[in-house]
Amino acid sequence: MSAVADVTDSVQAPPAAVPRRRHWGVIALGVFTWLVILYSIAPIAVMVAYSFNQATRGGKLTFAWLGFTTDAYRYIFSIGDLTQALVNSLEVATLATLFAVLLGTPLALALARYRFYGKTLTDLTIFVDIAAPSIVVGASLLSLFISLNWPRDLTTIIIAHIAFDVAFVAVVVRARIAGLDRSIEKASYDLGAGPWATFSLVTLPLIWPGIVAGALLAFVLSIDDFIITSFVAGQTLTFPLWVYGAVKTGIPPQVFAMGTVIFAAGILLALWQRRHAA
After folding, report:
1. Alpha carbons 85 and 69: distance in angstroms, whole number
2. How far, in Å, are 165, 212, 228 from residue 96 at the CA level?
3. Which of 44, 97, 236, 249 could bridge to 219 as Cys pair (CB 3.0-4.6 Å)?
4. Which tens digit of pLDDT belongs to each residue from 98-137?
């Protein structure tokens, strides 16, 4: 019995606590990560903070803190040309995103599911569209519009934004399609569903998170673009172009207020997408 008891005690006895060793590499990596995050959000924090700063008598902001106020939000649309520039940016981003999704989603399906003549060239074109410097893309689009004798206005901005947004949508949606189980679609065919019913009831809901993610990315890239837009805008002003021009004379607080609202809307959309994707 004593032998059995000794064996039982040895089995039931909790293992001795193993002292944790401090992995300095992990700690250093964590500190480095937080420093990068703080470095990234510092300009945004400054923008949000100074959107509540009192402007000077000339209606411009300085780095001197003159007092807390919410006037920038109360009179956020008081500058007519700035408001119109924001409307132009929202219109361009919305239309460019819509057409980029309509063009990029079928392109992603074709690249992910089928083999066809010119597929390698199409992949290369998408890669070049993403990797090419913005100034090169802008200059090439400007040359195209000049050769076509096409006046530069809001339409040319939309066309230019669609041109670079399609590639990003196609890449994001294609990554989503690549992770799908084809047996689900095959089961739909076995149950009597046709190609359109299978796509609308099975494939589309499965790739929908990728489509939304691609659309959000396209919208953000479009509303934020400055370099390509500056080549093809002509006399039309978007929000980034207006801000760039205002830097030379002084930035009004409404710019920071609009930037804060756009940033907050982006955060809400990202949280909504993450919730529905989960």
Report:
1. 24
2. 7, 14, 14
3. 97
4. 999 999 999 999 888 888 888 888 888 888 888 889 999 9
Kindly write down the DSSP assignment for every residue of the chain, as one continuous string. -HHHHHHHHHHHSPPPPPPPP--HHHHHHHHHHHHHHHHHHHHHHHHHHHTTBPP-TTS---SS---B--HHHHTTT-SHHHHHHHHHHHHHHHHHHHHHHHHHHHHHHHHHH---TTHHHHHHHHHHHHHS-HHHHHHHHHHHHHHTTPPPSHHHHHHHHHHHHHHHHHHHHHHHHHTS-HHHHHHHHHTT--HHHHIIIIIHHHHHHHHHHHHHHHHHHHHH--HHHHHH-TT---HHHHHHHHHTT---HHHHHHHHHHHHHHHHHHHHHHHHH-
Domain with CATH 1.10.3720.10 in the chain: 80-251
Q: Is the pLDDT confidence value at 217 over 80?
A: yes
Residue 233, class by beta-carbon neighbours within 10 Å (0-12 exposed, 13-18 middle, 19+ buried)?
Answer: buried
- pLDDT greater than 70 at residue 6: no
Q: How many C-beta atoms surround the C-beta of residue 179 within 10 A?
A: 10
Cβ-contact 144, 174 below 8 angstroms? no
Which residue shows structure tokens 């999704």? Answer: 101
Topology, domain 80-251 = MetI-like fold (1.10.3720)
Report pLDDT for 271: 82
Q: How many residues does the chain have?
A: 278
